[in-house]
User: Fold this.
Amino acid sequence: MTRRHIYQTLLLFFVLLLAVIHHYVGLPALQENPVSAPGKKIYAAYEWDAGDASSLNPDMFRGSFRNPDFFYTGGEGLSVYEPGILADLPSSEIEHVINITKAPPSVEADVSAGGNLPPWRKYAVSVDVPPETRALVTVIIDDVGIDRRRSKQIMALPGPLTLSLLPYARDVAIQSETGRKAGHELMVHMPMEPVNEKLDPGPIALLSGKPVSEWREMLDLGLSSFPGYVGLNNHMGSRLTQDRKAMNWLMAELKDRGLLFIDSYTISGAIAGDVAARHGVPTLTRDVFLDHVPEEAAVHAALRKLESIALENGHAMAIGHPKDATIAGLKEWLPTLKDKGITLVPASYLVMQAGEPAPVTLSRKTLESEVFER
Assistant:
């Protein structure tokens, strides 16, 4: 055997050895809790059972992540991550990794029956409204996905509720799929900058004073975290939803993407809903917070207020959270609606009843110069 053959044999041996190590050991342990720090970046890692691998294709992920650089590695599981980054960097250099253990449902397959409808109509949960209905109510549950146990309890409630999932929640794609199978509608709970600088909106957030490229990166990360949603509402955002220039940029994006927007109305000066309507984005603003005081008596009082507004105006929208008092209150309250002539509907249905606003025509160049003048 020549020296060249020996080198080739040794090289093949080491390649096989590395493949075996990857097969049984996998990637190094990665930090699961987001910890903001200068110089760190956010990455996404997806893993599937080997049986799911045959149904995957790169175009599915290039479309959802808007990133052509993801690649696949074989083995018992299949992983997708940016070339070399997750395999080579120590966990101390990674701010947050979005991990899910099963392939997210294919958006393309899911909407095939939806024709040319925009996503807020394609993914809308259908509901039968009895003719004797006196009023409609929508209950949005924010912060879904972080507290897995309570989120699961929310999903077990009779629906259709509207679940607004935080995009950086662990296994958010799996949790969203569970929610949809339970008959609930989905939204992205998009983190935005609060007035209180001590509050941390999380690793994926829209913050004022950032360049367009960073805003778009954050929005893309948020909107690629799971499929099948009708739109988004703001997580925190008491500062950003008062910023007309920032809201102009965001609503132009949502209009382009065919998504609805619900203003969580976290501060009285919020203008997000008005700006959304100006851009022709289907929109509504919440009427009641259910659990600002997380006690059962307070939740019941908020639900009575929701009923009162709905019966007076014909409809009303509430926002709650996966809290024990909220879960207990809804579990007791939801079965009583039929006898009161009130029908629970998802957010898209209530928005549809309001009608799609006529947009004000503004060029994209004008909008971006309004937001980020440099």
